[in-house]
Amino acid sequence: MKVLITGGSGDIGEYVVKELKDKHQVTILDLKPPSKYPEIPFLKLNLLDAEEVLSKVKGFDTVIHLAAIPHPFDDPGDKVMQVNVIGTYNLLEAIRRNKIPRVVFGCSESASGFGIHNVSYKPKYLPIDEEHPSYPHESYSLSKYFGEVMCQEYSRAYGIEAISLRFCWVWLKRDKKAIENILKNKNVDAKNWFSSYIFPEDVAQAYRLALNYSLDVSPPFESFCITAADTFQKIDSLELIRHLYPESPPPIKNKEYFQKNPYASLFDITKAREKLGFEPKRNWEGGF
Ligand SMILES: NC(=O)c1ccc[n+]([C@@H]2O[C@H](COP(=O)([O-])OP(=O)(O)OC[C@H]3O[C@@H](n4cnc5c(N)ncnc54)[C@H](O)[C@@H]3O)[C@@H](O)[C@H]2O)c1
């Protein structure tokens, strides 16, 4: 399969390239060249340049879309919105006009409003699954939400097969200090993203599975929550929920999920397990 990976020179992109490069004809699209894999074809492109994107993004079977500003902490909100929303729009237009059949979008659990957030809402229920309403309200979470909505609507209108992988905080080397601190102290007050996390190898696994996944729904669009199997807390998940919402914890939607694994992630990966065949291979107990 001819696969274009936007953001393939980035920290997660590197793992996705590694996972796919021996089985597929991979090309990387990015602003900067990759630091590894010099043998992989590289398209130096800015996704904000609509004309260039339209003329160069063609002839692929699938586009994996990871190029983005990956959090709102270092850039003004309007820049995050511009790169992540307009960049995704330009890419989807090239996909549509150049008849590329499938896109796999790099979404985020932040699109739900319970990852990176300013306002702490109470979920309607836990664990949060793909059916839970989304409440994004700051630049990054909004940009990921709109990105997914654009993929869904291009799928509905033009029949493009679209899969949105809503993965959570990826444990990358650039966050080594914070991760080592968590592993040492097990900080129960870590409210953001409900203490969910994932190793990059497991994100790459989800992309590999999404490439061959047979979409049997109409329109051909599906989203999947993708996290490690557990949280990074020592306490079990029901206790974590009581800790986060001491007054009145949200109802538990999927009781069996926490019976099977008392430490299960508060983002429900059941659909990814059942439909994609996703099974996280790494967790914090194996060290960073
Ligand atoms: N890191 C996480 O914890 C996390 C969690 C959930 C989702 N994501 C998503 O995963 C994707 C990759 O994140 P990452 O952590 O590897 O980030 P990263 O910054 O390491 O990689 C992003 C890549 O996109 C490229 N890029 C940025 N703007 C571009 C543009 N205008 N045109 C072309 N290329 C451009 C950058 O050069 C970079 O190589 C992002 O879409 C991010 O939102 C990340």
How would you summarize this macromolecular structure in one to three sentences?
The chain is built from nine helices and seven strands. The chain is of the alpha/beta class. It has a single domain, classed as 3-Layer(aba) Sandwich (Rossmann fold).
Describe the fold and architecture:
This protein is of the alpha/beta class and 288 residues long. The protein has a single domain, classed as 3-Layer(aba) Sandwich (Rossmann fold). 35% of the residues lie in helices and 13% in strands. It has nine helices and seven strands; from the N terminus they run βαββαβαβαβααβααα. It has helices at residues 11-20, 50-56, 77-97, 139-158, 176-185, 200-212, 237-244, 255-260, 270-276, and strands spanning 2-6, 25-30, 42-44, 62-65, 102-108, 161-167, 221-226. A seven-stranded parallel sheet has the order 3-2-1-4-5-6-7, with helices on both faces. The longest helix is centred in the N-terminal third of the chain and has 21 residues, at 77-97. It is globular. It starts with a strand and ends in a 12-residue tail after the last helix. Nicotinamide-adenine-dinucleotide is lined by residues 7, 9-13, 30-32, 45-48, 66-68, 70, 83, 87, 106, 108, 167, 169-170.
